[in-house]
Amino acid sequence: MTKGDIITDPKESFYRRAYRKDKKYVDPKTGNFISRAFTPRPKRDNGMLSVDLVRLTTPENTVMDADKFAIAEVQNSDIINLGLESIYDPVEANGLPENLAHCLICCIDEDDESIAGILARKSKRIYLAEGE
User: Fold this and answer.
1) Model pTM?
2) What is the mean pLDDT of the chain?
3) Greatest mean pLDDT among 12-26, 35-49, 77-91, 108-122
4) Sign for the pseudo-dihedral over CA of 77, 19, 58, 46
5) Among 20, 34, 38, 90, which residue's CB has the most CB atoms within a 10 Å radius?
6) How many CB atoms lie within 10 A of CB 87?
7) Nearest to residue 53, comparing CAs of 128, 103, 125, 124?
8) What are the start-end ranges of the E strands in 34-123?
9) pLDDT of residue 92
């Protein structure tokens, strides 16, 4: 796979992380991600969400700090069914691989809040530690 490739296999899945203790991203009652966790930031994300390709990483590598972040898994089939695309976008720093699992979910209409809500409902929370 090379940078910019569209991931078309519906069986692929992605990890998305969000602030764990912030009720804007994770419902404190259910622990489930809410739509804000799948909403691109208007001035920064250009209609794209940063995710990691599951088969190229681990939940621990994606979350980095389990005290600070929560992680959810979303299926590429759901992304495709919403008319979105998943694009391979490995991150490098100083010419060296920093995150080879990095991808982008793109083509999200920032004015369509239903997309983020659907992705949140379809996602599955991954728990890394007991009592999380």
Assistant:
1) 0.91
2) 90
3) 77-91
4) positive
5) 38
6) 17
7) 103
8) 49-53, 69-75, 85-88, 91-93, 96-99, 102-106
9) 83
C-beta neighbour count of 24 within 10 angstroms? 11
Q: How far apart are CA 94 and CA 103, in angstroms?
A: 19
Amino acid letter, 19: Y
Contact 37, 72 (CB under 8 A): yes
Distance of CA 2 to the CA centre of its chain: 19
Q: 35 — alpha (psi -120 to 50), left (phi > 0) or beta?
A: alpha
Q: Residue 8 pLDDT more than 80? A: yes
Q: Where are the alpha helices (DSSP H) in 4-112?
A: 59-63, 76-81
Instruction: Please tell me the distance from the alpha carbon of residue 71 to that of residue 37, in angstroms, as a whole number.
Output: 10
Any residues with CB less than 8 A from the CB of 79 and at least 6 apart, and which?
Answer: 14, 85, 86, 105, 119
Please list the residues that pair with 72 across neighbouring strands: 16, 125
